[in-house]
Write the structure tokens for this entry.
Amino acid sequence: MTFGTIGILSPGEMGAAVGRTLKDKGLAVVAALNGRSERTRALSAQCGIANIGSIDQLVRQCDIILSILVPAAATVAAQQVAAAMRATAARPLFVDCNSVAPQTSRQAGEFIVAAGGRFLDGALIGGPPGGSAVTRFYLSGPGADELAGLGTDHLQVRPLGHEIGEASALKMCDSAFSQGIVALATELLVAAERFGVEQPLRAELLETRGTTYEWLVRRLPEIAPRAQRWVREMEEIALAFEAVGLTPKTFQGVADVYRWVADSLAARSLSESGELPQNGREVIRRLGDV
């Protein structure tokens, strides 16, 4: 398909970076920032993403809308865009790129299709694109291969198939692996801190599982600012796994771990100050003190 103007709904850390890499490719990238936070506005400005105001204007002016939001906002965003499609008679392609269960993505798609629009299921895996970071952009649904031309050095577009939900399923499994392991490590390391055996456990893990332990410790500083968002993502994983006959309890428990981290005074002080420790051991020490 022809790539005209691309809308980002909404330019947070990932959305702004995706917008920037598409803009660097020479594409027009815009966002609807009415009612959005100062942080979102600042990220958009830094990445050269133009503000066109309302979602109605986004729908009118864009050929493609990429929905890149926190999981809790994904369905509401699809409803808002569907309402704007009806109000404006414009029908851009809507791509749900959020970390949600396949059934949540399909529900979002139903809103868009009912309004006469086209819908694709997407998944962004990896950190925000730019610098040395490469993001894999998986797509599924009818015509998913049409977006292959959006690919850049930092955004690798990978069509999966024609079924809505395949991209979301891949994202759920990937997040279950990554965030699930980090949650388990967080809880067991805090337990060791409170039992008073952190040092001998660390020595044991370095001796027997050094590479894995060091990878986990490097990930731990991420949890304070992201734990609240990961709560809903883990709940979406629980829904996804339950739908294919697996227990939802595992990732409901993982969601509880991230809820505890997000609610703890130690995590709140880390995320609000912006002064994250340089290593995971300090994160565990602060969480262990709560």
The longest strand covers residues 118-125. The mean pLDDT is 93.
